[in-house]
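Data card: per-record layout.
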Amino acid sequence: MTSFKVLVVDDEVDFLESLVRRLKRRQVDAVGVPSGEAALEHLAQRAADVVVLDVKMPGMNGIDTLREIKRLYPQVEVILLTGHASVESGVEGLALEAFDYLIKPVKLDELIERIMEAFDRRRVMDELEATQRDSRKPG
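The structure for this 139-residue chain is written out next.
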């Protein structure tokens, strides 16, 4: 499996720890934080390729966190996760360029598949950006 970094953000500590542990068992480089604010602090210190982000959290909710992640780190792919499905938050998240919107409980295999697809998109976008940058170099 290609190495990439995943940040999991969820205020439900048991769920967060369990998901990070299960991802690590699958050789995914995963780290967890319990809030949107902690996610932004983490991203300022350590890059992530994909963020798995809970929508409903106290303080900075998932949609606000997504908005900030995309403003500060537009190349990071974000998968929204929620136990409280709402069409409105799903539509808003996708409009803010979330990669996907999944409903808890999500099967681990399905989540890993979506994480890998998000990472693949990130890698393709990085390659495209590098190609465009190289084509603009005088030469």
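Known properties of this structure: DSSP finds five helices and five strands in the chain. The longest strand covers residues 77-82.

See the next section for split statistics.
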